[in-house]
Amino acid sequence: MQFLWHLFLHQIQMYQLSRLLHDYHRDLHSHLEQQEIGPSLYATPWFLTLFASHFPLGFVARVFDMLFLQGSEVIFKVALSLLGSHKPLILQHDSLESIVDFIKTTLPNLGLVQMEKTINQVCEMDVSKQLQAYEVEYHVLQDELLDTPPTLNQQQRAAQLERTNQSLRQQNLDLLEELQ
User: Fold this and answer.
1) pLDDT tens digits, one per residue of 14-37
2) Which residues form a coiled coil (predicted)?
3) I want to staple 29 with a disulfide (CB 3.0 to 4.6 A). Which of 3, 7, 21, 127 is the partner?
4) Cα 90–Cα 93–Cα 96 angle in degrees, nearest 5
5) 125 CB-near residues (< 8 Å, 6+ apart)
6) Helices (H), 86-180
7) Is the C-alpha dihedral spanning 91, 35, 28, 6 positive or negative?
């Protein structure tokens, strides 16, 4: 059960990151969308390990410091800052493989100047209201998906299955009568 809760939270976080990326770096968001690269392809290890899986220890220590001071929104701000500061380089890549490879291997090789720039950007950002709005938006979209009536094809298929089921019931009754 706890696993499902974490999976649900992760889906919300990936939606929030996608929306933030759309708001702050629309051209990068569009480029990633064109290549069918969702945030879960590159940001899952960042969120699960708080950047410790790919980034230098000094950078991770700074992220942890900010996390203790500002809360979990720091993870979003770091991800947004990293992607934004490397946007020109990411936009040069034109395939799923090369983009994901760049984000997973080249992006974590931060120099001290880039690391400091990222930390400063994170300290200046405020995305808490947007994160709350996007979480509500995510829940509303999920509720709408659940409440949407099935399409006509699905309704026709359900009716056909119901007729088939009724026919099989009748055949079973007929066979039972014959047997008796």
Assistant:
1) 999 999 999 999 999 999 999 999
2) 151-178
3) 21
4) 100
5) 77, 80, 81
6) 87-92, 96-101, 112-124, 128-147, 152-179
7) negative
What are the φ and ψ backbone dihedral angles of 107, each rounded to 5 degrees? Answer: -55, -45
pLDDT single digits (tens) 80-100: 999 999 999 999 999 999 999
From 94, 91, 22, 80, select the one nearest 46 (Cα to Cα): 80
Instruction: Tell me the backbone φ, ψ of residue 7, rounded to 5 degrees.
Output: -65, -40
Task: Look at residues 41, 39, 40, 44 and name the one whose alpha carbon lies nearest to residue 20.
Answer: 39
Structure tokens at 53: 């899986």
Q: Please, what's the largest Cα pairwise distance for the chain?
A: 88
* Structural tokens at position 60: 């991770």
Alpha-carbon torsion angle 138, 139, 140, 144, nearest 10: 100
Cβ 110 vs Cβ 55: under 8 Å? yes
Residue type, 7: L
For tokens 């990151």, the residue is: 17
The residue written with tokens 């992607």 in the block is 83
Q: How many CB atoms lie within 10 A of CB 97?
A: 9
The amino acid at residue 40 is S
- How many DSSP H helices and E strands does the chain contain? 10, 0
Q: Cβ-count burial of 177 within 10 angstroms (0-12 exposed, 13-18 middle, 19+ buried)? A: exposed
